[in-house]
Amino acid sequence: MATAMENRRHPRIHREESLSLTLLPSGSLSVSPDDRLYLTSHDVSLAGISVELPAPIKPNTDVELWVALLEEHGTYHLYGTIAWCAAPEGQLLAGIALDLERADGRLWAAHFDNDGFFND
């Protein structure tokens, strides 16, 4: 049986980044500031980010993110979809699959080398 590590498309690195996450309700054109969560990342990769959550989020929920990278790498406006939500070891996490074709997705991708490793 393949492990989760073997199924990953890109390497993950543990990084605590500040981000705001907005849930995008289906069919809604406006999102109120109350819908925004302020979170910390657990790890990042080229195509995804896992975040620590205060409450569960359903998989397949579309989200909008603003990620502020440390070391003055800037702030990135990204879109994605909740791929999974679970509580390994008692900590509630969600994995967000990023849509690199929208907003700052290509600028985000520029921080990773050809093998998917983050370039500082």
From TrEMBL:
GO terms for molecular function: cyclic-di-GMP binding. It holds the Pfam family PilZ. It comes from the Bacteria. Gene3D superfamilies: predicted glycosyltransferase like domains. Residues 7-102 form the PilZ domain. SUPFAM superfamilies: PilZ domain-like. This is PilZ domain-containing protein. It comes from Alcanivorax profundi.
